[in-house]
Design a protein that fits this description.
Elements: H1 25-29, H2 37-48, E1 51-55, H3 62-72, E2 78-82, H4 86-96, E3 101-103, H5 108-115, E4 119-122, H6 125-133, E5 144-147, H7 158-169, E6 174-179, H8 191-199, E7 203-207, H9 212-219, E8 224-229, H10 234-257, H11 268-271, H12 276-284, H13 293-314, H14 317-327, H15 330-334, H16 343-354, E9 362-363, H17 371-389, E10 399-404, H18 407-419, H19 421-431, E11 438-439, H20 441-448, E12 458-459, E13 462-463, H21 473-479, E14 491-496, E15 512-515, H22 522-525, E16 533-538, H23 548-556, E17 560-563, H24 568-581, E18 590-595, H25 600-625, H26 634-648, H27 654-659, E19 666-670, H28 678-684, E20 688-692, E21 699-700, E22 705-710, H29 712-721, H30 723-734, E23 737-743, H31 765-778, E24 783-787, H32 790-800, H33 809-814, H34 832-839, H35 849-855, H36 859-864, H37 867-874, H38 877-888, H39 906-917
Parallel strand pairs: 1-6, 1-7, 2-4, 2-5, 3-4, 5-6, 8-18, 9-11, 10-16, 10-17, 17-18, 19-20, 22-23, 23-24
Antiparallel strand pairs: 12-13, 14-15, 14-16, 19-21, 21-22
Length: 918
């Protein structure tokens, strides 16, 4: 049994039902159109109840979802699909191929019309939330909502907001969630319970790879497995050991410097895993602002070392050597944690150089560790297998699919198969600016040969100039173009001519032609067994589409697959593809695994398996003890909300609140704010959110209170550009209580003191402080509120609205626009500069400024008025005296030692007012 095809040792489970494992006769005859047994059981489970389906990586739910949407694709139904990526939407729309499948229209009126046509609607969550709030969708008529990537549904996200709006007015429709990330449900306390509550589902269906039905389905048609345990060279092993030693030192330093911070996830084992950056983010984001600069450099260097480890195992020796030269520079060593001066680092640099140059300092690079094994598979194993099985194999084509981790490896394998090892490595040296002074004998013979014509070399589809018989390596280096590093492709396709005797020397170049396999006619792929097609491709496409490999397998139906790197998801996708075809063993796919045994590559693969297994075990245990909350009726929820409101109100109004229903609170919200979590949290508190396009502010709480919300980065940008000044000016002119709400990231608190910076921007901390002080001096009416997270902001809004009048959304939408006939008459009839100036004078307020401006036609007439006339205009004797004194009594600045340095402009103000009086 192969170590890559998982067996029952991990355990079995029957939590998803006891469906029969016997395949139907129709499914065996059909070449993959029918659902597999476990997929059929998934669909049956979801048909009867609202549920959350959690599948293992590679055991995708796409066929189940297609079956579900296909059954509901009818104008009598209205089904919404949320949280779907562009590539997934394109896939499902293409497979359904129905006029009843709709994409989201840009115009609101068009969307409202399309909703009434029913069918399946793929729509972005932000648009869906706004349409639900504005009643553009007939919520009562929605048949159900399908949620993809359900592990991302937290209570503050837009998807949870949309589901809450849907469930408040529709109790009959279904909700069905899908996820392929079991590990995401283990982050945070009670993550599974919260997701299920936010989805409003009643059941959780867990489908790990070790589930009994999946095991039985895939084991019946598992592909033929051939493993190649490729030993790493002694120098590669030495470099790996050096990197691990340096990592171990850096991890110890991080924990030593931060003894009071939980660093249990910062281990050497986790440092080499694929999800290391996610582990770091979860572990350190909340305390990042408290970490010293030395700690941040150590963590950054751990990421660098992980990339070096990947380059050592996956890429060629030339690329690793060129990368290490950068990290050996004095500039990098001075700006890093100093790992470059360790003995292990020196030894690593020396070993990396020895992989490129021999003891005589001649250019003689080491081959890629898996290259010879790959050549053996392509030139010996596969040709022999083709000749042995050509007579009785149904699939006459010989398509070879080579799968690797990244685009760079894909490119290198393409070059190796086209050019051979020596020429490939020589071109790598030229592309990476590796200085070559002397050449080893075999390389010198290659360049001196008159028969070598390099003009046929195509790097990334670019024709190279003709170079024949060059004796000087530097001359050749000047003729070859720069490396197209940023144009690595995710796939290449070649045709291979079989040798008459495939057991001959493996170093003989195979004649191949380059071209993208997608551009190769399908007929040419299966015309002759004598010319197999070799396709090199990454596990995922450039768009990170999880279904890209499945599409490739379906299109090519390769007879041979070479796993150049190990990938859990890809291995399972190969199993599923073969199980779907239900072929006899002689016609099944043959899979070759290339693995560096007992190395970091194998350890990383096993760590990923272990993490997923532990995640599913956690989900299974949670399901046994999880309590699904009872779904209350609409009347029961309304009564509960009223009861909570009565408890929150003061005792003084308790009697009145019990007699009648509390009025529904409203907050007018700008449409652009629905990119944030705040509208969702506001609605969760029982406040109605009214989305409109606001010209001034982001939130209007009452007819007098307007809020402009800023994140830290937005605050810095607005202060520097002057945009915030204009926004505050508009708020002050149109609202009695303008508020600037500064909301920093809930996961990254910050300080405005000592060495803690407000941001990583070049703007200094003191500059931000000074600009905020100027803002408060210029706008005395402006309130500045600091909020630690959106939850605190929502609670603040709730408290500010208690016993206050509700805003008028129609008036809010026109305030600040050209059509606004505002109550603020200063915007229409009076000089705005005089209006702003008068508000800064003592005794003049928002309530009496208009009457004052109406009483006197200009400023000269105001200066001539006595206190009695001012009292009549202002409606207050005290206010009249304050205004008369500031206009007629010479104002001398108060000279105080404690404040003289703070207000150097006070003396200037006195002169200005004296001059104004004269």
């Amino acid at each position: 049994m192969s170590t890559f095809i998982e067996d029952d040792e991990a355990g079995t489970s029957t939590m998803s039902g006891g469906a029969s494992t016997k395949a139907s006769a129709e499914g065996e005859e059909d070449g993959g159109g029918e659902l597999l047994e476990y997929e059929r059981q998934m669909l049956i489970d979801l048909h009867h109840t609202d549920g959350l389906v959690i599948c293992a990586k590679g055991i995708h739910y796409n066929r189940v979802l297609l079956g579900l949407l296909g059954a509901l694709c009818d104008p009598a139904n209205l089904v919404i699909v949320m949280n779907c990526s562009e590539s997934e939407e394109k896939y499902y729309r293409g497979k359904l191929n129905s006029r009843h499948v709709h994409e989201s229209a840009t115009n609101a009126k068009e969307r409202e019309k399309v909703y009434l046509e029913g069918g399946i609607h793929f729509i972005t969550t932000r648009i869906l939330v706004v349409d639900l709030l504005k009643n553009r969708i007939p919520i009562e008529m929605i048949t159900g909502i399908v949620v993809l990537r359900a592990h991302m549904i937290i209570e503050s996200c837009q998807e949870a907001f949309a589901l809450r709006l849907y469930r408040q007015r529709n109790r009959e429709g279904f909700v069905k969630g899908f996820s392929n990330s079991a590990e995401s449900f283990t982050f945070g306390y009670g993550q599974v319970d919260r997701v299920i509550n936010n989805l409003y589902v009643e059941e959780m269906f867990v489908w790990p790879r070790f589930q009994s039905l999946i095991q039985a389905t895939l084991k019946k048609y598992e592909p033929v497995i051939v493993e190649f345990h490729v030993p790493m060279s002694q120098k590669m092993t030495s470099i790996q050991a050096d990197i691990l030693d340096i990592m171990n030192y850096l991890v110890k330093e991080v924990k030593r410097i931060n003894p009071h911070i939980d660093m249990q996830e910062i281990t050497v084992e986790n440092c080499v895993t694929k999800k290391f950056h996610k582990i770091l983010q979860l572990q350190l984001d909340t305390v990042w602002h408290q970490l010293s600069q030395q700690t941040k450099m150590l963590i950054s260097d751990l990421k660098v070392l992980r990339s070096l480890m990947i380059s050592t195992i996956y890429h060629d020796c030339i690329s690793l050597y060129a990368t290490l030269k950068k990290y050996k520079s004095a500039e990098y060593v001075m700006n890093s944690s100093g790992w470059g001066i360790l003995d292990a680092a020196d030894h690593m640099f020396e070993t990396a150089k020895k992989r490129v140059f021999n003891d005589k300092e001649e250019f003689e690079p080491e081959w890629g560790a898996k290259w010879k094994s790959l050549s053996e598979i392509l030139r010996v194993e596969i040709p022999n297998d083709i000749k042995l099985n050509v007579g009785h194999r149904k699939n006459k084509s010989a398509v070879v699919l080579i799968l690797c981790q990244d685009n760079k490896t894909c490119y290198q394998l393409n070059q190796y198969l086209l050019l051979g090892a020596e020429r490939c490595l020589f071109h790598m040296a030229l592309q990476n600016d590796v200085k070559v002074v002397k050449m080893a004998k075999n390389y010198q013979e290659m360049i001196d040969s008159k028969n070598i014509i390099l003009e046929k070399v195509k790097l990334q589809g670019t024709q190279k100039p003709e170079v024949v018989g060059v004796s000087d390596p530097e001359e050749l280096q000047g003729e070859v173009e720069e490396d197209p590093m940023d144009t690595y492709q995710a796939s290449y396709t070649m045709t291979m001519s079989l040798e008459e005797d495939p057991t001959e020397d493996l170093d003989v170049s195979t004649q191949m032609e380059v071209g993208k396999f997608s551009q190769l006619p399908a007929a040419e792929r299966t015309t002759s067994v004598a010319k197999p097609i070799v396709c090199i491709q990454t596990f995922k496409s450039d768009t990170n589409d999880p279904l890209s490999l499945e599409a490739t397998l379906r299109e090519l139906d390769p007879q041979y697959v070479v796993m150049f790197h190990c990938n859990v998801t890809a291995i399972r996708q190969l199993e599923v593809h073969e199980a779907r075809l239900r072929r006899e063993i002689e016609n099944r796919m043959k899979v070759f695994f290339l693995l560096h045994a007992q190395t970091i590559e194998e350890q990383s693969y096993l760590t990923n398996l272990r993490r997923e297994k532990q995640a599913f075990e956690h989900l299974i245990d949670t399901k046994k003890t999880m309590v699904i909350p009872k779904r209350l009726s609409e009347q029961e929820e309304r009564e509960m909300a009223q009861e909570e409101f009565r408890e929150a109100t003061s005792m003084r109004n308790a009697a009145q609140s019990s007699e009648k229903s509390p009025p529904l609170m409203k907050i007018v919200t700008d449409m652009r704010e629905f990119r944030s979590d705040l509208p969702c949290l506001i609605h969760k508190l029982g406040i109605e959110v009214i989305p409109i396009t606001l010209t001034i502010g982001d939130y209007v709480l009452t007819p007098e209170v307007c809020v402009e919300r800023k994140s830290i980065s937005d605050l810095i940008g607005s202060l520097n550009s002057g945009r915030l000044y204009n926004q505050c000016t508009q708020m002050v002119r149109n609202y009695a209580v303008p508020i600037l709400l500064i909301e920093f990231d809930q996961n990254r608190p910050f300080y405005l003191q000592d060495r803690y910076m407000i941001s990583n921007d070049t703007v200094s901390n003191s500059d931000i402080k000074q600009k905020l002080q100027l803002l408060t001096l210029h706008f005395p009416k402006l309130r500045i509120v600091w909020s630690p997270n959106p939850y605190a902001t929502a609670q603040l809004f709730y408290e500010m609205k208690q016993n206050k009048l509700e805003p008028n959304e129609k008036l809010c939408s026109v305030i600040g626009s050209d059509n606004h006939t505002a109550e603020s008459e200063a915007l229409e009839k009076f000089n705005l500069e005089i209006y702003d100036f008068l508000l800064k004078l003592p005794g003049v307020t928002e309530k009496n400024v208009f009457k004052l401006m109406k009483s006197f036609k200009d400023f000269k007439e105001l200066l001539k008025a006595d206190q009695a006339q001012l009292q009549e205009a202002l409606g207050s004797r005290e206010s009249a005296k304050l205004l008369w004194d500031i206009l007629h009594v010479p104002q001398k600045p108060k000279i105080e030692t404690s404040t003289s340095g703070k207000f150097p402009h006070a003396k200037f103000k006195g002169r200005k007012f004296q001059k104004a009086k004269q």
